[in-house]
Each structure stands twice: as C-alpha cells, then as structure tokens.
Amino acid sequence: MNSTASASGPPAPSAGAAGPPSAPSTPSPDSPASSGSPGSSGSSGSRSSRAARRGGARVRTHRAHSPWLFLLPGLLITLAFNIYPFVATVWKAFTDARTLTPGSFVGLDNFQEMLADEQFWIGLRNSFLYVAAVVPCTVVLPLLLALLVHKNLPGIAFFRSAFYTPVVASVVVVGLIWVWMLDDRGLINAVIKTLGFDTVPFLSDRWLILLSAMLVTVWKGLGYYMIIYMAALGNVPRELHEAASVDGAGPVRRFLSVTVPGVRNTMVLVGALSSVAAFRVFSEVFLMAGPDGGPAGEDTTLVMLIQRTGTGLSGRVGYASAISLVMFVITMVLLLAVFAAERRDKK
Predict the structure, then answer these.
(1) What percent of the chain has pLDDT over 70?
(2) Which domains are seen in the chain, by residue range?
(3) By C-alpha distance, which of 296, 333, 275 is closest to 127?
(4) Those residues with Cβ within 8 angstroms of residue 40's Cβ, 6 or more apart along the chain or in another chain
(5) Exposed, middle or buried, 306 (CB in 10 Å: 0-12/13-18/19+)?
(6) Has residue 199 got a pLDDT over 70?
(7) Alpha-carbon distance values, 16 to 13, 19, 23, 25, 327 (Å)
(8) Strand partners, 204
(9) Which of 258, 230, 217, 259 is nearest to 159 (CA)?
(10) DSSP code of 137?
(11) How confident is the model at residue 17 (pLDDT cuts 50, 70, 90)?
C-alpha cells in the first residue's frame, strides 16, 4: 500500500486541507465581465459599433445636405425671377394673352404677324445698327483709355474716378442731361451757332437721333469697360514690353504685338457684353426719340417695340412675348458668333 501510494505521487490536498487562502477576484466596473453574462461582451461591442455607424451616417448625410441649404435661397430667387419668367414668356409667345386676360393657344400666329409687321423690321434693323456702331467703340476706346490711366502718374487716381463716374450715374439722369445739351436751344447748338454755323437737328432727324443715342451709350460705358481692361493690363508681363523696347519696337508696335495679344480674352469678353447691351438698348433711344420712336417710328428698337406693344391695360402680352423670344434667340446667336470667332483666332 505504501509503495503504491508513493509511486503515484503526493496526494492532492483535500477541500478541508489547510493552506493559504486565495484572494477573491473583484471584477472592475469597466470589465466586460461586470455585465453579468458571458455573452455581454460581444453584444455590447456590436451595439457600440452599430451606434457608431449610425452616427457616422448622420454626419455624412448632414454634410451632404449642408451645401444645398446654403444654395437654396439663391436657387429660389433664380427660379422666381429668372427661370419662371422665361418659361412663362415662352408659353405666352404662343398665345393671344393680353394684360388682363390669360388668352388661349394660337400656335405660330404671333410669329406670322411679326414677319408682316413693318415696325418689327425697323426695330430689328436699328438694333443691328446699334450693335455694329457701338461694339467696336466699346472694345477699342476703353482699352486706349485704360492704357492712359494705367500709368502711375501724379493725380491719375482723379482721372480714373472721373472716367468711372458716368457708370454709377442713373441712365435716365445721364440721358436727360444729354437731351438738354443736344436740344435745338441746348449747349452744343449754342456753341455751334457761336461759331457761325446753323443749328444741328440732333433730336428731330431720324439718323441723328440714333447717332446721338449711340454716343450716349458709348460715353456711359467707357468707365465700366476701362476697369475691366485695367485688370487685364495688370496681368501682361512687364518683361515683354521691356524686351520689345530693347528690340527697337515703338509704342504702336508694342501695343499691337504685346498689349493686344495679352488682353485678347478680355477683348472678347468686352465684345460679348457690349453686344448684348447694345442689342437690348432702350433708355437712351427712348429718351432721345420719345415713346413713339422718333419721326414715324423710324428710330424704334426691338425693346422699345416690346415695351410699346406689351404694356398698358390692353397690352398684347402674347405678341410682345413672341418678339422677346426672337430677340433671345438672336442674342444667343450673337454670343455664339463672338466666341466662335475667338476660337478661330486662337487656332
């Protein structure tokens, strides 16, 4: 017996055997075992990961929607004051709507009447003449003016402000001042009479009325386009002018070979802006020629025809909308022609 017991090794201590007591383990509150169940660790981790995913999704959704919240006021204003009026104009162009009645659909009747309307062709002719005369002046003259005031000379800031002053003045006020100056008893005719010449009928001759309005348009826009050109001239490297001077190029040669290529894109922009403005001219011609468009309506422009036809209690809104739609198409064609010509020059 004793040999068998000794061979098997020391006997295991019994439950009642004396020995050093082991300290009971107290789970910490942060330990996963404190949840009270063996699977609580996995379920708690999955719940926290799901909550993190939901929180991240909410943050991403909020970030995606935030730009639209900032853009919404501008989009609503654009919709209310640009898109809706344009769509309404397109619809009314095919109706016989008047100021106080919505009218009914008449198809292409307004456009057929337009083709037979003499005033429409007069307005179209005058609008194109306005573009042909005004645009070259507003492209070239402001550039020359910008070259003069671009130099840092004493007192040049005064001239910059003086040239820009007509831009901020009301076109009606400017037009009335010019009407007073061009009247038969105005300042300009007084000077002409003093020099011994006969008075010039600036405001009674059909062609002089249109020419006077063009003069006012060019004069008022000089300062605006001058500022645009001044910004472009600042981007032309001075080294190119210095290199051209070293090569013996004179002022005219430097202007044609350095300045013009450097501001070519700006010239295209000015040409596009002035083309649209000239084709839509109203105030200057209205003030010079009167509401009837001068003698026998010969100085009527398209915008004046739209105003005269579509306003008043019995205004033909449908017919005026048809003219507006044609005018929009012509304006887009003008812009496309300007940019197409600019692309051909680059090639």
Answers:
(1) 80
(2) 55-92 (no CATH), 109-346 (1.10.3720.10)
(3) 275
(4) 32, 33
(5) buried
(6) yes
(7) 8, 9, 17, 21, 110
(8) none
(9) 230
(10) H
(11) very low
Residue reference for tokens 């001058």: 226
Residue of 344, 339, 346 whose CA lies nearest to 276? 339
Bin 237: left if φ > 0, else alpha if -120 < ψ < 50, else beta: beta
pTM of the model: 0.75
For 123, residues 6+ apart whose C-beta sits below 8 A from its C-beta are 300, 301, 302, 304, 305
Question: Helix (H, G, I), strand (E, B), or coil: what is residue 115?
Answer: helix
Measure the CA–CA gap between 179 and 188, rounded to whole angstroms.
Answer: 10
User: What's the rounded mean pLDDT across residues 198-219?
Assistant: 93
Q: How far is 211 from 298, CA to CA, in rounded Å?
A: 13
Distance CA 233, CA 186 (A): 39
Measured CA angle at 339 (ends 337, 342), to 5 deg: 110
CB-count burial class (<10 Å; 0-12, 13-18, 19+) for 188: middle
Question: How would DSSP label each residue in 139-179?
Answer: HHHHHHHHHHHTS--TTHHHHHHHHHHHHHS-HHHHHHHHH
User: Kind and range of the H or E element at 91?
Assistant: helix 84-92
Alpha helix segments (H runs only) across 185-313: 187-194, 206-233, 238-246, 251-254, 260-262, 264-279, 283-289, 302-310
12: left (phi over 0), alpha (psi -120 to 50) or beta: beta
Residue-wise pLDDT for 45-66, tens only, equals 566 666 556 655 565 655 666 7
What phi and psi values does residue 95 have, to the nearest 5 degrees? -125, 170
